[in-house]
């Protein structure tokens, strides 16, 4: 039966889980579902038992460092599928993911991570209720910002890449979390599984979507029924809305991915989670090639012509939240089913990527097809396995930092990488 977790029941489960920590075996999930906040996680806990794949609340494992709001990892009795709610925003999600990958309760070396959250949706590429699988996650707000009221009249946005003086130039100062590229072959497999889902829709939502027909052919997807698509996510802790901001981040996504990325979903957590998974892969704790980023559209990121940005954000009910939550599970459970059903033949050994995967620095080896290229010469960073190894690695990090500073000076002086 579905299980609705009240605060009191959650506290009891925490107490039981903490008491049982020394007795339970290490769990090796085949799939770990990552939710961002309560409604996204609750849909899995409520409905999973009807999937025939077990009861997702059979085990509740307390792990130090998780959010005080979501202190438990839930798993089926077999441990093949688990679910964690990390908390909203980049900081919460990164801290919770760090706690998960360092937990002694789990072996995550063969685990597929399904990042499953709702999002703002770009009406140029999808509609409310649509399900998107990403190849790229771009931290679009990692830029200078000038108040729009202080801008020259002909400027399209107040966001300026670090180290630059104008919008839409490639940044010459990078932090390493600007862009993550995921396994495109795995994304395609997940997209195929999700095509089996029956997506929900609602007439009230369709009525609002029809307002976008006034914007012409580029927005024809906004008025179509929900579908499963392949396009990318923009990460920002700022909940933004409006045509100018959305267009600015659409351009940022394209620029920072060398023209390959297509922004269609907004998110608050993806890049924080992915940075943790890159670092955990370096340490041999997880496999970054086994990460799937899925988002469902709950509201449009910009208004139709008949609404102002402010009205669109505060005085319009797009009626998309419940559809997005429902379709998150409807599509996600098909991905989980697909991985489990073909585990022995395909997914146990992994889906080999044919594209670059990793961060903008090339930390996992290979050569990024965006940014400045690998700062390690195409080599994967190695985990420190001994005190001597750590010292050696520390010298390497210092060396890499020196290379990066040299790149900043070079690109800043020459103004290269403009697009």
Automatic annotation (TrEMBL):
InterPro entries, A to Z: Nucleoside_phosphorylase_sf (IPR035994), Pur_nuclsid_perm (IPR009486)
Keywords linked to the UniProt accession: Signal
Signal sequence, start to end: 1-20
GO biological process assignments: nucleoside metabolic process; transmembrane transport
Cellular component, GO annotation: endoplasmic reticulum
Pfam families assigned: NUP
UniProt key word Signal: yes
GO molecular function, one term: catalytic activity
UniProt protein name: Purine nucleoside permease
Species name: Trichoderma guizhouense
Organism taxonomic ancestry: Eukaryota, Fungi, Dikarya, Ascomycota, Pezizomycotina
